[in-house]
Design a protein that fits this description.
This protein is an all-alpha fold and 400 residues long. The protein has 16 helices and no strands.
């Protein structure tokens, strides 16, 4: 029988996950704003630091492994940002600048090769090394979009940074899915399933992207609206597509990025995704960066710390060298080429989710993969925004 005073809370009070998550968001907002106003440190760096402190590596108040709902939040936030990134990619402009496409292919190829060789020299198993090399191609789309908006950056380097980031994201996602063919055969030994997996994942994701883009374009063409009401409906389209991709186990990352590209480029009168995606989108961005580093644990340093340092150095060198070498032919100065190459440094949520996908399909895979990538993400999510901010300021494209 309950007490007459059962309406009172239990004592001592025990804060739940919602309390800690709310406190983490509050501190992330305050800390990042203080850093921005005092030292012009990008807010993303503040989000990352708070996530690191609030996670298992710090106070252990929140964790990115709290349940499937966390993964859904990450998919939602990154999916929206990928759609926005894709909608900023002008294919007509890229077709006119073939040197930019060659730069992208060369940069991704050299990054993959040098990182793979470096990981093998570090004693990392071949299959783990090849997945790390594929993920290393990517540049964080969430970070690039957030920094462009926050810094109000405009110019040749910024425009090319968006293009190379979008292409790198596609390369990384597709390549990891193709590599999974070998993993599927090793883990399950079913030849038919091994062949079907990449066809289903890539083909299904592209089909969903095409349907989403066509649906959004048709909506805009028929309705002729450009206000907050049409934006709500557009968001509904995107959330529905993310839900379909999740239920059908397709690649949300590939589907959303490709849909954004098609949305911008298929229509004769291309629509531009609204500048960022409102207050709710900004909140999702904060959650995205806080939860990513909340997945870090200090034991990862023991198993993957040294390899992560090598990965960071080799990856940044490969990206800088290739972009710098192709800068003059592609129409920018060597100074701009250096700034663009170094601005490709950020690695964050996309890399985290690619690692998480690997363990979702192959639970017994080498744990060193997570250790190496998470150590690299910690460094590049904190330092990456600082590098990009300084580089865009160096070439005069940073307005704030």
């Amino acid at each position: 029988m309950k007490s007459a005073f059962s309406f009172l809370p239990d004592w001592p009070l025990v804060p739940d996950t919602i309390f800690w998550a709310g406190l983490a968001l509050l501190l992330a907002g305050l800390f990042s704003e203080f850093g921005w106003r005092t030292w012009r440190i990008p807010r993303i760096t503040g989000y990352a630091v708070v996530g690191l402190i609030a996670g298992p590596a710090g106070l252990d108040a929140i964790s990115s492994n709290m349940g499937v709902d966390v993964r859904l939040v990450l998919n939602l936030g990154l999916g929206l940002l990928l759609f926005e990134l894709g909608s900023r990619l002008n294919l007509k402009w890229m077709r006119k600048n073939t040197w930019l496409i060659l730069t992208s292919l060369a940069e991704a190829t050299l990054t993959f090769i040098l990182v793979l060789l470096a990981m093998r020299l570090m004693g990392v198993p071949y299959m783990t090394a090849i997945i790390i090399a594929a993920i290393a191609i990517s540049t964080s789309p969430a970070m690039v979009i957030q920094l462009k908006t926050e810094l109000k950056a405009e110019g040749q380097v910024t425009q090319r940074l968006i293009a190379l980031t979008a292409l790198n994201s596609i390369y990384a996602v597709v390549l990891t899915k193709l590599i999974s063919v070998w993993l599927h055969e090793t883990f399950y030994g079913n030849f038919f399933a091994t062949l079907l997996e990449p066809i289903y994942l890539i083909g299904g994701s592209l089909a969903l992207a095409y349907g989403l883009a066509r649906g959004c374009n048709l909506f805009y063409r028929r309705m002729g609206l450009q206000d907050e009401h049409s934006f709500v409906a557009l968001m509904g389209f995107i959330l529905l597509a993310i839900a379909i991709a999740h239920v059908c186990k397709l690649s949300i990352m590939l589907a959303m990025l490709t849909a954004g590209i098609l949305f911008k480029n298929l229509d004769e009168r291309p629509q531009l995704w609204p500048e960022h995606f409102g207050t709710a989108g900004r909140l999702l961005t904060v959650i995205l960066f806080v939860l990513t580093l909340a997945g870090f644990r200090w034991e990862y340093v023991e198993y993957g710390g040294l390899a992560a340092v090598v990965l960071i150095v080799v990856r940044l060198f490969a990206k800088w060298l290739t972009v710098w070498m192709f800068s003059r032919p592609s129409g920018i100065s060597l100074r701009q080429g250096t700034a663009l190459g170094l601005s490709l440094a950020p690695m964050s949520v996309l890399a985290y989710l690619l690692v998480d996908d690997t363990y979702t399909f192959y639970p017994g895979f080498d744990p060193d993969l997570r250790a190496v990538i998470m150590c690299a993400i910690v460094v590049l999510q904190v330092a990456g925004p600082l590098i990009v901010s300084r580089m865009l300021g160096w070439v005069g494209e940073r307005k704030l």
